[in-house]
Amino acid sequence: MLSQEKALKILEECGLPQGIVDHSKAVSKRAGEIAGEIEEVDEKQLKIAGLLHDIGKARCIGNGNDKPISEHSIESKKMLEEIDQNNLAEICEKHSFRILAKKDLDEYSLEDKILIISDMQTKGSEKVSLEKRYEDLLSRYPNDSESLKKALPKLKKIRSELESTMMKRGKGNKLDIEYNMVDFHEEQTLHRRIAGKLRTGEHSRSYY
Ligand SMILES: [Fe+2]
Fold first, then answer.
1. Domain boundary assignment for the chain
2. CATH for 4-199, among 2.60.40, 1.10.3470, 1.10.287, 1.10.3210?
3. What is the Cα–Cα distance from 92 to 80, expressed in whole angstroms?
4. Ion ligand 1 — residues with CB under 5 Å?
5. What does the pLDDT look like over 93-110, one tens digit per residue?
6. From the CA of 179, how far away is ligand 1's center (Å)?
7. Which residues of 172-195 are buried (b: 16+ CB within 10 A; e: fewer)?
8. Which of 7, 31, 71, 162 is placed for a possible disulfide with 50 were both Cys, Cβ 3.0 to 4.6 Å?
9. In angstroms, what is the span from residue 124 Cα to ligand 1's centroid?
10. pTM for the model
């Protein structure tokens, strides 16, 4: 397996914008935190997957990079296969909500689930609730709203599954920091709000 140092070097040298590098480091930290509370998973591997899950964006963003951003996780997979990291390649490919929207949850291992929730609780470098991140993605990728809508119930299911696994281990913490506090907007309200933002051009364009 790759060392943490080597993974960090790959991340920092693959030509990604600094925002995505910082996001990847934050996802790695979050994946390590969750994995640390679930004994049967490899914490080290998950931290590395966090660092490298978005490297495929290096082939989507910037001069001469023509892959659509929607395919970044497939590009991450290819890049990792090119360096013989097939296990990591599979976990990283599946972190995208676009892939989750199409796949059955049975096809996701515990590791896959931890990575996707870690990414879905990290907006830029900030730790946020799944709901906040969902809203963020919806505002930046309005063309992917169908995939997001399909992925949301699966994401919630993954969150509660991981949470009960953690509880069974005797860990008291709730997985989602704002889970109990957030007055989560009904999906309809959320979509109306996003539509308003889109109309006024308030949504931003960044690709983490
Ligand atoms: Fe990400």
1. 4-199
2. 1.10.3210
3. 9
4. 54, 119
5. 999 999 999 999 999 999
6. 20
7. eeebbebbeeeebeeeeebbeebe
8. 31
9. 8
10. 0.85
